[in-house]
Amino acid sequence: MKLSVTSLTKHYGAHVALQDLSIEVPTARVLCLIGPSGGGKSTFLRILGGLETPSSGAVSLLGEALPESADGLLTHRRRNGFLFQQFNLFPHLSALRNLTLPLEKVHGQNPTEALSTARAALDRFGLIDHADKLPSQLSGGQQQRVGIARAIAAGPRILFLDEPTSALDPEMTAEVLELIQELAAEGQNIILSTHEMGFARAVADHVAFLAAGHIEESGPPSQVFGNPTSPICQRFLSRVMRY
Ligand SMILES: Nc1ncnc2c1ncn2[C@@H]1O[C@H](COP(=O)(O)OP(=O)(O)O)[C@@H](O)[C@H]1O
Ligand SMILES: [Mg+2]
Q1: Which amino acid residue places its CA nearest to atom 8 of ligand 1?
Q2: Distance 112 CA to ligand 1 centre (A)
Q3: Is residue 147 over pLDDT 90?
Q4: Rounded-to-integer distance, Cα 82 and Cα 44, Å
Q5: In angstroms, rounded to a whole number, what is the distance separating the alpha carbons of residues 143 and 124?
Q6: Average pLDDT, integer, range 99-105
């Protein structure tokens, strides 16, 4: 996965969320965004996934400029998968229906196709026994795994994960991180924001540290974690890795 961003800026009214953000990632299967809260990670992910549009700047992902038209953005979103921090599933629908609904409504599969795609995705992650349960009958970790199954069911080009484990306890965090690692090992392109530094270091091919709406440090994990040049990145890592 190739990513090239030049002078990306995103305003919300007078508020600047991303400021002159540039990054070159020549090739990466897993790109991790790290950095302090409010630094711009979610905004950047949402722009890359076509859920928001830039105020200015140029973004090229997988060798193609991000579309600007509403139709182009819709197509772009359909080709990708998304999972956010929490509240991903429809609470009134079973795990299975949470998968079949978007396969039918967004991806145009007929109910029979959608059922078999959904069952295959749940089965792949050891979730088939939970197919008929409501989200409230599943643990937080199981819910996030169902959310990931839903996000990959239609075979996305890129899976976007925004702090997928930040609402989970350590054991559930581990079960979700293991699943993400498996997907990466199977060749899934992934862009995720996370506060799990050990995971980022172990699984990412490329790490970008965002603060105050731009990239402070970017490179392979060995460099960003082992030998960061930005004082802001050094300070952040020495604080979060201390405990
Ligand atoms: N929809 C929005 N409206 C106004 N400000 C926003 C919106 N989304 C994000 N922001 C602001 O943009 C900045 C970056 O936020 P965000 O991308 O959520 O950072 P992070 O994910 O790193 O915590 C923050 O100051 C945040 O308050
Ligand atoms: Mg965020």
Answers
A1: 43
A2: 40
A3: yes
A4: 13
A5: 15
A6: 96
pLDDT digits (tens, 9 = 90+) for 43-86: 999 999 999 999 999 999 999 999 999 999 999 999 999 998 87
Per DSSP bridges, beta strands 56-61 and 206-211 are unpaired
Separation of CA 24 and ligand 2 centre (Å):
21
- Going by their DSSP bridges, the two strands 30-34 and 189-193 should be labelled as parallel
Q: Which residues contact 198 (CB under 8 A, 6 or more apart)?
A: none
Whether the CB of 45 sits within 6 Å of ligand 1: no
Whether the pTM exceeds 0.85: the reply is yes
CA of 127 to the centre of ligand 2 (A): 27
Give the integer Cα–Cα distance in Å for 53 and 152: 23
Spatial CB neighbours of 165, under 8 Å, sequence gap ≥ 6 = 144, 172, 173, 176, 177, 194, 196
Strand partners for 208: 33, 218
Q: Where are the alpha helices (DSSP H) in 79-229?
A: 95-105, 111-124, 140-152, 170-185, 197-203, 221-226
97 CA from centroid of ligand 1 (Å): 31
> Angle CA(95)–CA(133)–CA(185) in degrees, nearest 5?
45
- Reported as a pLDDT band with limits 50, 70 and 90, residue 194 is very high
What is the set of domains in the chain, with CATH numbers? 3-79+157-240 (3.40.50.300), 89-154 (no CATH)
Look at ligand 1, atom 27, and give the residue with the nearest C-alpha: 38
